[in-house]
Structure formats: structure tokens, C-alpha cells
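User: Fold this; C-alpha cells only.

Assistant: Input:
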Amino acid sequence: MKTIQFLKEDKNHETFSSSLRKNVNNYFKENHISPNGNATMYFKTFAMVSLYLVPFILILTIHPSGLVALGLTILMGIGVAGTGMGVMHDAVHGSYSKKKWVNNLLGGSLYLLGSNVLNWKIQHNVLHHTYTNINEYDEDIDSKGPIRLAEKSKLRAFHKYQYIHAFFFYGLMTLSKTLNDFPQLAKYNKMGLTKGQNANPIGEYLLMIFRKVLYLALIIGLPMYFTDFNWWQVLIGFFIMHWVVGFILAVIFQLAHVVEGAEQPMPTSDGNIDNEFAIHQLLTTSDFARNNIFLNWFVGGLNFQVEHHLFPNICHVHYKNLSYIVEKTAKEYNLPYNLKPSFGAALSSHVKRLKELGRK
């Protein structure tokens, strides 16, 4: 993969980053608070992990009816999504705690999804955060089956109605990742990205196989052994849980980058992006529903993606307060700050973008 250079052509924009860092650092210094997690974060961790594990334990122990089991399965999906957004995400970025072992432990909650931490670090922390919304570099906007998310990717006839069918396929995200992690890690090994994370390519591949087999043995094997449900009923429950997880995660992530105002710049022939890195993050990212208390709590600050992309090493519990600082600083430098006022507004904007991307 060719390295992209972010240029600093405008001296006024060049000072934006330093001014913003200074303003954010002053916020933490003046309020005598840590940029890592706090009591709110600890409670959320307990709540979300419990929302996943407690329904699963109940399914195994109380032998519920099919309808009750369905409800518990949906709760599991919500719990897994909440754990991924509000616990794992911060931990893998190293922002949950100043203690590395805590971040490693809670980052491992990704295995509850049947996915792989190393894959996530490379795809999300390295590629997505470095090359945000750049086609063929940021895998988050790669075409996914019948869904076209990048302006420069190939347009096909079935993309015309993707604003309708995309939401069903969003639900397949984590289920497909259970299998797609294998070719993805093989690709990262070939590109040298695995070694870039100080990981042994062969060892990581073997560990991933072991973890996935263990995950499937627990999430599918235990219900088959301890309950009276048929194997096909267990598999349906497994599918429903993953569909709920995938749907929530995909929608929340798309509302930050595939909406009106979130640009998809392309590098020049020399491999340059004609913008300073922090400016690039402003142009390619969007916040939404700043004042929605429940959403701020449940989605782990993923509705504050502008702040997250500018300060990925700061825990999301601080993002709402930082959003006012970022917005004010951006306006001082005549820079855009993309904020959708509500979840509904962001969702509507995403649907409009899907329509645009589905047409010539």
C-alpha cells in the first residue's frame, strides 16, 4: 500500500491543530480530570456486558419458551453492540484506562462478537483513522456486496435501490466478519501490516482459529447441550443476535462518514491529500444528536466521530464537552464543523447519500 502524505499548504490551517490541542489540553488541566474513563464508563461496562451475558445465562438455565428466548436473544444483540461501541472501542484505542492491561482485557470483549482484535486494530485504528473516507484505503467505505459507499467505486444497476435494501445487509456485518476475518488477516499478513503491530503472522492466524472455534462452541454448543431447542432453532437465534448487533453497529458507523457534508477526497497522482491531517478529519467526519442523552450513553460517543478522529486516545465520556471546544476552534479558523442535530436528521442524510451513491 502506498503511503499518503497530508500536505500543510495553508499556514492558517496549520496552526489549527496546535490551537485545538492547546484548547483541549487546557480543558482537562483546568477541570483537573483525566482524559481516560471514569465512573460513568465503569457502570456502562458492567451494564453492557451484563446485558449480553445475563440473557445468555437465562437461556441456558430457565429453559424459556421460544418467544421469551427470542426476546432474550435480541437483548443479547443489544448488549453485544453496546459493549462493542462503549467498551471495546475505547479499550482497543487505549483510551479506556491509562493501564495497558485494562485496555487489553476489555479490548478482548471483541471476541464476544466472534471477531478478532488484531484485525480490528489494523482495519479501524490504522487504516480507517489514517485514511478516513479515502477510497481503496479506508475499508469502511469499500463496496460491501450490494452496497456502494464510495463515490469512486464501480456503480452497478442494483445500487439504485440500495437506500432500501442496505439496511437488511447492514445486519449481516458481524456475521460475515466471523468468516471474513480469515482472508482479511491473510491480506494484512501479505501487506506487512501484521508485523507493523508487532505480531507474528502465523501465530496470530492460529490464535484466531482457536478463538473462533471456542466462540462458536460456547455460543452455539452450550445452547444445544443445555436446552431443549433443536439445532436449527439455536442457529436461528445465533443469526438473530448477530443481525441485531450488525444492524446497530453498521447504522451508527455510517451516520458518521456516509452522510451529506462528509467528503471523500482522493489523493493526487503523487499520493498527496491537499489538506492538513486534522482538517481532513473535519471534512470527512460528522457528529450527530449531540444533546440526545440516551444515545450519547449507549453508542459510546460514536455520535461524536469528529472529536474521536481528532483525539482517539481520549475516552468518549468526554466527547460532548470537547465538541463545543472543537466547534468553536473550527469556526475561529473558518473551517466546517459537520453536526446533524438529531439521530433522525443523520439517518435521513445517510439515506440521501445512499440514493446519490446508487446513481450516476
